[in-house]
Amino acid sequence: MSSSEPIMSGNQSLCTHFTFVAFSSLAELQPVLFIVFLTIYLFTMGGNLLIIGLIWGTPSLHTPMYFFLVNLFFLEMCYITSVVPQMLVHLLVETKIISVARCAAQMYVFSILGLTECCLLAAMAYDRFVAICHPLHYSLLMGPGVCLKLAAASWTTGVMVESAQTTWIFTLPFCGTGRIQHFFCDIMPVVELACVDTSHNETTLFAISVLFIMTPCLLILCSYVHILVTILRIPSATGRSKAFSTCSSHILVVSLFYGTALFTYLQPKAAHTPETDKATALMYTVVTPALNPVIYTLRNKEVKEAFQRLTLWSTLSLTP
After folding, report:
1. 213-220: long-range pairs with CB below 8 Å, 24+
2. What is the three-class DSSP state of 308?
3. pLDDT (mean) for 235-246
4. In sequence order, what are the residues at sequence separation of 6 or more whose Cβ sits closer than 8 angstroms to the Cβ of residue 96?
5. Which of 58, 109, 158, 208 is deepest in the core (most CB within 10 A)?
6. Are strands 17-20 and 97-99 parallel, antiparallel or unpaired?
7. pLDDT, tens digit, for every residue of 46-84?
8. From CA 216, how far away is CA 115, in angstroms rounded?
9. CA-to-CA distance for 52 and 300, rounded, in angstroms?
10. Using one digit for the tens of pLDDT, what is the confidence trace for 149-205?
């Protein structure tokens, strides 16, 4: 059976399966890659679950910032799970195929989570803006109802926009060999398999990316411009350092996420190569989710203290 099983539709042979060829040139290294990616995946899931558990079990962390962090860590767990388990299976088998329906399902989940994270990071930046620039009104402006609405708006935007976009992409006819130069069903590698002129589709996809990636990015930048101005007006060096420390972890996470997202989705088509696309995709699907719990653990005093209390309690409970 061929890697892309054809069906006849008029004069066209339409694909019912796609084949991933991202690691086809690394056949001897695939067992090693399996161990590396499995280790990263387990570390990511364990780290995110640990921090969610710490926040859930520590009343002092039941604040808006940590509410958004729980959303972020849950999202990251779903994000990496939408890609890595399938990649691990394909590293162990010779024929790396996926049905068009499963490919569509993966793109739905992955793209929805990606845009939701853009919006969620913007909501977190707004939280830091209110906390630093309007501290006396923080409890009013960032009450539980506001936090729930911001989180719900982030998830709703991701679901509505990316569901429509992915549905539109999979109305295209796919034909030919069905070979995807990637390790998962990312948007542009799949669109390139369409057997019709996709120049209009690609322009529209680029416009959507600019609108829905750059809008949250600009909101984040505006928030941090105001935060920076406010921090510089604080007279004491200790006050400035304390105010900045509450934002540093978020700045690092935003830099990692948007650095790879902007490089991947806002580059001109001519600048894309399969090698750079795969490298940047590994960054935002595997590496970034693994780094986030480390960043928020090592650079957050409250999380470190909660972790130390948990460690101490575990040690004492095991002592005879």
Report:
1. 213/115, 213/118, 213/258, 213/261, 213/262, 213/265, 213/266, 214/266, 216/118, 216/119, 216/121, 216/122, 217/118, 217/122, 217/258, 217/262, 219/122, 219/125, 219/126, 220/121, 220/122, 220/125, 220/254, 220/258
2. helix
3. 84
4. 19, 20, 21, 23, 24, 90
5. 158
6. antiparallel
7. 989 988 988 888 888 889 999 999 999 999 999 999 999
8. 9
9. 14
10. 999 999 999 999 999 989 989 988 888 778 888 889 988 889 888 888 877 777 887
At residue 118, what is the residue type?
Answer: C
Total-model pTM: 0.86
Q: Are 96 and 4 in contact (CB under 8 A)?
A: no
Q: Which tokens in the block code for residue 260?
A: 């790879």
With residue 236 as reference, give the H or E element that holds it.
Answer: none
Place of tokens 């490298």: 279
The letter for the amino acid at 310 is L
CA distance 278 to 65: 33
- Give the C-alpha distances (Å, rounded to integers) separating 258 from 128, 175, 297, 311: 18, 33, 21, 34
Q: How far apart are CA 81 and CA 247, in angstroms?
A: 28
The values of phi and psi at residue 303, to 5°, are: -70, -40
Rounded distance, CA 64 to CA 148, Å?
9
- Distance of alpha carbon 174 from alpha carbon 171, whole angstroms: 9
| Cβ-based neighbours of 75, under 8 Å, separated by 6 or more | 113, 116, 117, 120
Residue type at position 79: Y
Looking at residues 295-305, what average pLDDT do you find?
75
Encoded tokens for 181: 């130069």
pLDDT greater than 50 at residue 135? yes
CA distance 120 to 79: 14
Q: How many Cα atoms within 13 Å fall on the side-chain side of residue 192?
A: 15
Q: Which two structure tokens, joined as six digits, stand for 3?
A: 């890697």
181 vs 305 pLDDT, higher one: 181
Which residue type is seen at 179? R
